[in-house]
Amino acid sequence: MSNHSFNNFTDELRTRLSIVDVVSRRVPLVKRGQNYWGCCPFHNEKTPSFAVSEDKGFYHCFGCGEHGDIISFTMKSENIDFKTAIKELANMAGIKMPDYKPKSPAQIAAEESYLNITTRAAELFHKKLYEPGGEIAYQYIRKRGFTDEMIKKYKIGYAPKNNLITNTFNSIKPDALLATGLCRRGDNGDLYDFFRNKLMFPICNAHGQIIAFSGRSLDGSEPKYINTTDTEMFHKRQTIFGLNYARDAIHRANRSIVVEGQIDAIQMQCNGFPETVAPLGTALTDEHIAILCKANRNITFCFDGDGAGQKAAARAASIVMPFARDTSDIRFAFVTGGKDPDEILKSGGMDAMQKIINSAVSLIDFLWEIANKNYITSTPGGQSQAEKFLDREIDKITDIKFKSAIKSDYDKRKFDAWRKWKRGDNKNINISVPDVDDITKNTLIYAVNTYPDLIDIYGDFLATLNIEFDVPVIQMNLTRDSAEKYIVSLKIQRHIKKLQNEKTELTKQLLSGDDGAGDKIRRIDAEIMNTRAKLEQLINN
To answer: Is pTM, for the whole model, over 0.70?
Structure first.
C-alpha cells in the first residue's frame, strides 16, 4: 500500500482536525497575533520559538527548523510510522479508516473527467442565463440586487427545462455523467437532467474547483433549493458555500460570518462583508465548524430572527461548543422583522447590516438566553432543567480552565437572577400558594413533566400559576393533545375571569356616574362572548 493511496483520506484528516488541537496535546500553546506559540518539543529551549498556524495548518520552529503538518508532528513527537500516525489521527477525528487501494489511472482519469464535466456545465448554464429562454431567471437574479459583475464572478446560470446536459454530453459515458449528480436515470433506463428550470449556483471546493450545483426554483415549487446529491467529490456536510472566495477575507477580518443561504452569502461578500459563508442545503454540521475553525475560531452566526432562525442558532451554539477556546470569539446576531441579510443590505445598506453584526451576543450570553427562554426559571423545577441544559453544553468544552471559568460565570448569574434574596429579607416572609385547586395543579404537573415541549409553548402562562413542577408525578391517562387542550382551556377560563373582574369594576364606575364606563362594559361583554365561544369550540373538538 503506497503513501499515494492515503491522499484523499489525509486531506480529510487535515480538514477535520485543527493543528492547534493536535499540537496542544503535547505542547502548551499561547496565541500571539495570528499564530500560536510554545516551546519546541524537538529541541530544548526556554524561550518559545515554535509557531503553529491554524489557518495554514503547519508548524515551524525558528530555533531548530522543524516544519510540518499534523501527520509529521504526530510521527515525530510520538516516534511512530506514517500509517500508525494516520490511525491515531483518525481516532482523534472520530472517523473510520477505509481500506485503501492505490488509485488506478482510470480513477485519476475519472476525477479529472468529473471536474471537466462540472466546469463545462457551469459555462453552459451561465451562457443560457443570457439567452431568451433564461430571461425569467436573469430578471429574478437582477431583482435580487445582483449586478452582471456579480453574476459573472459567481458563475450564476440557468438550467433550462429540456435535458441540456444529457443532450450536450451525449458522447460521454453515462456513468461519468451520473457520477457528477447532474443527471439521473429514469425508469425506462434513459438519462435525464437533475436540474431543470432552475437558477444555478455553482458550488466550489476550497481550491475553487466546481464540484456541485445548487438550483433555485423559479415557479414557486418546493423545495425552493435543490443541491447535487453527495458524490465522490462532493459532500454537503463537509462543503461550505463561498469559502473559496472568503478564505483570505476571513484571515484579514479575523472572523467568519455564517448566514443561512447562498444568496445571502453572496450579497454579504459583495457588500462589505467578504468573510461571509453559508452551509449548503443542510443544517450546520460539526464538519462545517471544524473547517471554519481551521480558518479562524472567531465566528459570528447571523440568522433570521424567526422561530426557525432561533432554532438553527441554538443548534449551532450546541455544535460549536467543543470548538470553543478562551481565545475564540463566537457570537450570534439576528435579522428581525421577517427580513434576511439580503433584504437588509438592499434597504439599509452596509451600515444597517453592520449594526446587526455589532449587536451580536456572545456564545455564553446566548446560551444563557436560551436557558431562560426555554425553561420556567421562576420555579425550582424550571431552574433545575435550565441548569441541566447549561451543564450539558458546558461539558462539551475541552479546555478545563475555560470550562471552569464559564461555570463560575453561570453560577453567579443563577444566584443573581434566580435566587433573588438579600440578607434581612427573612423578615415578614409571605408564603405564596398556588391559586389553582389540587386537581388542576396535579393535572398540570403531569402534563408538563410528561410532555415538556408544552413548556416551550405555554411557559409564560404556566409561570403565572405559582406551581412547583419539579415534584413527583401522579400518573394519569392523558394524551398530549388532551394535555394541551387542558392548558389552553385553563388559560381561556382565567382570561374570562379577568374580564369579568374588569366588568365588575367598570359597573361600579358606571353606578358612580362615569358615562364612559358603559361603552367599555359593552366591549368587554362582546369579548367575553367571543372567548366563551372559543372555549366551547375547543371542548367540542
So the answer is: no
